[in-house]
Amino acid sequence: MTSVKEFRIDEEPTATELGKGAFVFTDDYSVFDWGKMPDEIPAKGASLCTMGAYNFEQLDAAGIGTHYEGVLVDGELTDLQTAIDAGSQPREMAISLTQVPKLPHETDGYDYETYHDTAGENYLVPLEIVFRNTVPAGSSLRERSAPPDHGLDTAEWPDEVVELPEPVVEFSTKYEEQDRYLPREEADRIAGQADIDALEAVAREVNEYLNRQAAEAGFAHEDGKIECLYYQGEIYVADVVGTFDENRFSYEGKEISKEVIRQYHKRTQPAWVEAVSEAKATASERNRADWKALCERQPEPLEGHSIEVASNLYQAGTNAYVGQEVFDAPAIEDTLERVERL
After folding, report:
1. Separation of alpha carbons 250 and 214, rounded Å
2. Among 4, 57, 243, 303, fewest CB within 10 Å belongs to which?
3. pLDDT digits over 290-308, tens only?
4. For residues 4 and 25, is the Cβ–Cβ distance under 8 A?
């Protein structure tokens, strides 16, 4: 199980064949890599399933291979539009499954050689491929590079959001307890048989599609990520693509993504956020994977009104993105006004 969606296996994958299964999207949420938080955000799961399915179907139509098979309504496989026309708000997404071997953690780090020895030619690439179109204040990219590295005519990062002349693609770890950005050479080694240039090319294609789709719906697509599976020499987009949890979007200059919830926790639970940061730093210094065991605080539940606003944010945002009234939610402009008052 992941932190916010359940994972069901109907047919196990093998060394030579993909399996069959489904994501079941819950209303759980996660921030700062904590995993399941103390409360739920109503309709969040259905919103993410709808948005993810919409993007997968568009990518498939554009010839970009994915592991998506359709949505499930009352156990029946169908396409998203048929489900919407029937008045459904699907929460289950049918997918092809690949192998995900255990990634051993030794005293000297993670053992990717064993991961790939087990995986063969059918496996989930243990990387997240991140693409950035903008660099907001607080972005980790500002710590790892300077503006001229990205074709910008300034020596220092300005305080405001910076639009990049060309998207930046980076690679980070997927299954390590703390995500870390990787030099290209290390990312190439961790990717195994999957070609690092091909992974980047797929990420750029997905980013270009998301930029177009977002613009058509009145959004700006700021950044996001994909995960990929490798199967018999081919690369397919996996996990979920282009949702408010995987990507950052803005609408008329206002943030509309999980970043809103992150920032809310920073304002209302700063002690917990700081404790998380300290625990991760301590774990890194001690070469420990279980940083949460070192955290001295637990997150508190959200206040009732903030849960309602967050729920409306996901639903109204999805309606606007797919261009249909899938959910009974306020207009996105009204919802964003309430977000600003949180």
Report:
1. 9
2. 303
3. 899 999 999 999 888 999 9
4. yes
